[in-house]
Design goal:
By secondary structure, the protein is mostly helical. Helix content is 77%, strand content 0%. Keywords: DNA-binding.
């Protein structure tokens, strides 16, 4: 008797293994220089097997970005537990997101000068990232909240692609220019 749930579990494990391999290759080669053949080799599978799980390089990159985003969001939520002021939560969330990406070599690889344009396009086109930002800001079904979420995402991507002079400079920019616009009305 066939057990489809085992097949689903194996499929998920195989996809995770491929994404883990992609992470290693992104760190070593950079995102733009990484080819599917590099990831297949690092994962110990054929390119055909890789394409069975991810039908394109773009699909693999989006899956990786979404997986890592969920991990970063969980870390940020833990970091913000003790904060109750909405403005301070927003400022600290942005700073924590920047730190999480910069402190992780695989994520930082997405925002080198060679890869930042592609990464910005992927991030700002992601409905999942927009929804996560909207949920943080308020009601994700509210059009105004979604607009503020897109702006929040652009601010984070901009600071990752073109950092401020130092952490104090970035905090000041966020306090002066992001918090007043993005804080709940």
């Amino acid at each position: 008797m066939s057990r489809p749930w085992l097949r689903d579990e194996r499929t998920e494990l195989a996809a995770e293994r491929i994404l883990d391999a992609a992470e290693r290759v992104f760190t070593e080669r950079g995102v733009g220089a990484t080819e599917m053949s590099h990831i297949a080799q690092a994962a110990g599978c054929s390119r055909a097997t890789l394409y069975r799980y991810f039908d394109s390089r773009h699909a693999l990159q989006v899956a990786y970005m979404h997986r890592q985003t969920h991990r970063v969001v969980q870390d940020i939520a833990r970091h913000l537990q003790h904060l109750t002021d909405p403005r301070e939560r927003l400022i600290e969330a942005i700073l924590a997101a920047l730190a999480a990406v910069r402190d992780d070599p695989a994520l930082a690889a997405w925002f080198t000068s060679a890869d930042s344009t592609h990464s910005a396009e992927l991030a700002t086109a992601s409905p999942i990232l927009e929804t996560l930002c909207a949920a943080f800001l308020g009601d994700p079904s509210d059009p105004d909240t979604r607009l503020r979420a897109r702006w929040l995402l652009r601010i984070i991507v901009s600071l990752l692609s073109t950092p401020g002079h130092d952490p104090t400079d970035e905090r000041t920019m966020i306090e002066l220019f992001a918090a007043p616009v993005l804080s709940p009305p």
